[in-house]
Specification:
By secondary structure, this protein is of the alpha+beta class. The chain has a single domain, classed as Beta Polymerase, domain 2 (2-Layer Sandwich), CATH 3.30.460. Helix content is 40%, strand content 21%. The chain contains 6 helices and 8 strands; from the N terminus they run αβαβββαββαββαα. The strands form 3 sheets. The chain has a 4-stranded mixed sheet. A two-stranded antiparallel sheet has the order 2-3. The chain is globular, with a radius of gyration of 16 Å.
């Protein structure tokens, strides 16, 4: 991870923590945490993208969404248009460019139970002084199986090669 990307992610984690946003890292970066690093692909272009794609699953409550918008505001994101959103806990998806990466905030994850249930099972680490919550290994595998895309099948295969019994304590 480049220093620039690391610093941007640190600032994002700090803002999310300071604004009490309940969320967890999911997707390709979570796969990397569990041992298999790969590049994201721009679907329309079919080539490796230059901007990292970092996915977060957020607790889809109105209070948490409001906290998320406030965290983005503290980072200098223009949140004016977000105030026009009619919050829908099943559909309010945000894609926010941060220069070195694009953060996507997802209200749900296919194949998984409630956010609260998965949040309890999630892995918590310190990332440059900030808490970073990462989807649990088993939940990540269930989500990847449900999605069933080629990239998801490859992620599962590579994770199971590297950690056949899942992550070790």
């Amino acid at each position: 991870m480049s220093n620039e990307l690391r610093e941007s992610l640190r600032k994002l984690c700090e803002a999310l923590n300071q604004n009490s946003v309940q969320c967890m890292l999911v997707g390709g970066v979570a796969v990397g945490f569990y041992g298999y690093e790969r590049q994201s692909i721009v679907k329309d272009l079919g080539r490796p993208e230059l901007v990292h794609d970092i996915d977060f699953w957020y607790n889809p409550t109105i209070t948490n969404f409001t906290n998320l918008v406030q965290a983005l505001k503290t980072l200098g994101v223009d949140t004016e248009s977000l105030s026009d959103y009619v919050f829908d806990p099943n559909k309010t998806f945000l894609r926010i460019p941060f220069g070195t990466f694009r953060a996507e905030f997802l209200p749900s994850m296919p194949g998984l139970e409630s956010f609260t249930t998965c949040f309890k099972r999630a892995k918590r680490i310190k990332f440059d002084g900030n808490e970073l919550v990462i989807i649990g290994y088993d939940d990540l595998i269930v989500n990847k199986k449900t999605l069933g895309r080629d990239v998801d099948r490859q992620d599962i295969e590579q994770l199971q090669k590297r950690n056949p019994r899942g992550p070790q304590p």
